[in-house]
């Protein structure tokens, strides 16, 4: 059984282009593996907030030494991490806002990048602990070409995912919606149809 985590970061809800395109990919995967499960994670959930000193302090306190307050502070982070740990496939709908990722998606990243949990430091540098997973990132833009010099979202997400051990990352180009939305959607869906699906165990 394949476990899919779908992270949606658009503020546009069901009308989101990145969400609709990611959903098409999920449909392909489920068609290939009807037993697949899907966990939906909206980065706009008010429980997902920016890091605070209190949160970081709890992260760096050994688990057995955390106070009840600290445990509560990082409970949302623990939940987000558990979702990533349980996933075989992570699908991120990443609209480009002002040349980068939405602040809500950055907040989600900050909650799952946990030293000693999703990555560790060694004498040879950082090592990701979330290995053996596949990630697809739908990068939806108004006019900025994906992987252009002005695209700071794609390299950031590839770097972050690789940092926690997810090195198998496929980018789905969904650019140009402000130029011609209809054509952009047609191209994006074609890109979804073209990606290789992971083999079903």
UniProtKB/TrEMBL annotation:
UniProt cofactor(s)? FMN
What GO MF terms are annotated?
electron transfer activity; FMN binding; oxidoreductase activity, acting on NAD(P)H as acceptor; oxidoreductase activity, acting on NAD(P)H, quinone or similar compound as acceptor
User: For binding FMN, which residues are annotated in this chain's numbering?
Assistant: 10, 16-18, 96-99
Domain Flavodoxin-like fold residue range list: 3-193
EC assignment: the record states 1.6.5.-, 1.7.1.17
Q: Could you tell me the superkingdom of the organism this chain comes from?
A: Bacteria
Reaction(s) the record says it catalyses: N,N-dimethyl-1,4-phenylenediamine + anthranilate + 2 NAD(+) = 2-(4-dimethylaminophenyl)diazenylbenzoate + 2 NADH + 2 H(+); 2 a quinone + NADH + H(+) = 2 a 1,4-benzosemiquinone + NAD(+)
Keyword Flavoprotein on entry: yes
Tell me which InterPro entries the record gives: Flavodoxin_fold (IPR003680), Flavoprotein-like_sf (IPR029039), FMN-dep_NADH:Q_OxRdtase_AzoR1 (IPR050104), NADH:quinone_OxRdtase_FMN_depd (IPR023048)
Q: What does the record note about the cofactor?
A: Binds 1 FMN per subunit.
Transport listed as a keyword: no
Broadest EC class?
Answer: oxidoreductase
What are the entry keywords?
Flavoprotein, FMN, NAD, Oxidoreductase
User: Which proteins does it associate with, and in what oligomeric form?
Assistant: Homodimer.
Record-stated family: Belongs to the azoreductase type 1 family.
Functional description taken from the UniProt entry: Quinone reductase that provides resistance to thiol-specific stress caused by electrophilic quinones.
Protein name, per record: FMN dependent NADH:quinone oxidoreductase
Q: Which organism is it from?
A: Thalassospira profundimaris
């Amino acid at each position: 059984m394949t476990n899919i985590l779908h992270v949606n970061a658009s503020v546009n809800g069901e009308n989101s282009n990145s969400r609709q395109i990611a959903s098409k990919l999920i449909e392909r995967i489920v068609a290939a593996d009807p037993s697949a499960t899907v966990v939906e994670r909206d980065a706009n959930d008010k429980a997902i907030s920016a890091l605070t000193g209190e949160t970081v302090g709890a992260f760096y306190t050994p688990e057995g030494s955390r106070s009840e307050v600290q445990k509560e502070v990082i409970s949302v982070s623990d939940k987000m991490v558990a979702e990533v740990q349980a996933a075989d496939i992570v699908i991120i709908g990443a609209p480009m806002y002002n040349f980068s990722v939405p602040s809500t998606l950055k907040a989600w990243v900050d909650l799952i990048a946990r030293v000693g949990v999703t990555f560790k430091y060694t004498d040879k540098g950082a090592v990701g602990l979330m290995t053996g997973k596949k990630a697809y990132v739908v990068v939806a833009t108004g006019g900025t070409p994906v992987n252009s010099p002005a695209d700071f979202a794609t390299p950031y997400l590839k770097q972050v995912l690789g940092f926690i051990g997810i090195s198998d990352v496929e980018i789905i180009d969904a650019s140009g919606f402000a130029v011609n939305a209809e054509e952009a959607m047609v191209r994006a869906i074609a890109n979804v149809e073209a990606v290789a699906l992971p083999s079903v165990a």
